[in-house]
Amino acid sequence: MVENEPGLDPLTEDARLNSLDERLRRAKTEEAIRTGAVDTKGDASYRLGNRVLAELIGSMVGGAVIGATLDWLLGTSPWLLLVLLFLGIGSAFRNIIRISNQRSK
């Protein structure tokens, strides 16, 4: 008997309200970033860690590839590979120390 009574149907979620909520949330986030209220320290630390990792891997792989190529061309295997690999490692550590001594902004 209650099911047949006229009245208001329960409201379903409106796509326009969901869209408005999403736009408001995005606007608040952008405003917080613009005013500096958001802590971006975590992002800076993540980027710094990736930079250090790239320096370490890139220098070692670069030295090894160039050394192996020169060894193959000149027939001096494995000496240039070892020398350039250690130079790459030294360069990586020098760059990492230089990065770690920079002041954060």
Automatic annotation (TrEMBL):
Keywords: Hydrogen ion transport, Ion transport, Membrane, Transmembrane, Transmembrane helix, Transport
Endpoints of the signal sequence: none
One cellular-component annotation, GO: proton-transporting ATP synthase complex
Transmembrane residue ranges: 52-73, 79-97
GO biological process, one term: proton transmembrane transport
InterPro entries recorded: Atp1_alphaprobac, ATPase_put
Reported function: A possible function for this protein is to guide the assembly of the membrane sector of the ATPase enzyme complex.
Entry similarity comment: Belongs to the bacterial AtpI family.
Protein name according to UniProt: ATP synthase protein I
